[in-house]
Amino acid sequence: MKMKLALSAITLCSSVAATADEAMYTERSPVIDGIADDITWRQGQWYDMHALMLGEQPTPEDFSGRYTLRWDQNFLYLLAEIQDDHLSDTYADPLERYWDDDCLEIFIDADKSGGDHLNNYNAFAYHVALDNQVVDIGPLSSDEKGNENGESKPRLFNDHVVSAWRRQAEQPHKIMWETAIKVYGDDFQYQGDNMPMVLKANMKLGFMLAYCDADGGDREHFVGSHEITPVNGDKNRGYIDASVFGELTLIGEPSK
To answer: Considering the domain boundaries, does residue 35 fall inside one?
Structure first.
């Protein structure tokens, strides 16, 4: 039977600025419904989203966020607590200007190898929209025009991330956003017969989390979990270069 927790029990844990993150093993997979009352979330460290990547630093009322992580053999679980005074989902087509709608952006590099992932699947930058559709850029396949130029295009990866969020009645500008993420290696092939990785204790992944705060059709702020060294003044590097991701360690292990 699913155990219920008061929301206050979840929010008592302190938050820290992320350097190297940890995800605790869970024997009870959370129900991904945006309620976030599962016993799964009761313990474990919370990490702040504080690092500005684009735009001006928002006020806490405009945007603030933090997150916590769990894992089992099948999924990486992420719970984000987001304060956003204006939720915006302007573009109905999930592949059109998806970065200019409010969304979580989850960065995963399964083998923590770093490097370019714009035109390959060396890593993923999942844009999880308010309608729970999931977009990343992927290389063109051999039968698509332009592949010889190394071009890419936005694609849906709705089967990679299960997502649900809800507003908090007592705090209408706060939402709890739950996700269950399948982790794929760099051998992933679009429309291929792919199997997600089996997660194990002590695995180290490249990881970063960010939020696109778009108040009315344009992204005003882009705030993430890890500081990025700018390249020619540009900190918006996560969708290109997995080397800017932080490190996530899976701790604990299944009962024998």
So the answer is: yes
pTM of the predicted structure, to 2 decimals: 0.89
pLDDT at 14: 47
Contact 108/94 with Cβ under 8 angstroms? no
What is the tally of structural domains in the chain?
1
DSSP assignment of 89-150, as one string?
Answer: ---SSTTSSGGGS-EEEEEEETT---SB-SSSSSSEEEEEETT--EEEEEEPPTTSTTGGGT
Asked if residue 153 is part of any domain, the answer here is yes
Q: How far is the C-alpha of 213 from the C-alpha of 5, rounded, in Å?
A: 29
Residue that has been written with the tokens 């679009």 in this structure: 190
> Contact at 8 Å (CB) between 173 and 162?
no
State the residue range of the domain holding 59: 7-251
Contact between 208 and 84 under an 8 Å Cβ cutoff? The reply is no
DSSP-based three-state secondary structure for 8: helix
Helix (H, G, I), strand (E, B) or coil at 39: helix
CA atoms of 108 and 122, how far apart (whole Å): 9
Q: Give me the chain's average pLDDT, please.
A: 87
**Residue 47 token pair:** 């990490």
In a domain, 70, yes or no: yes
What's the chain's Rg over C-alpha atoms? 18
In the chain, the N- to C-terminal Cα span, in Å, equals 22
pLDDT(26) > 90: yes
- The CATH number that applies at residue 145 is 2.60.40.1190
The pair of three-digit structure tokens given for residue 175, joined into one six-digit string: 């939402």
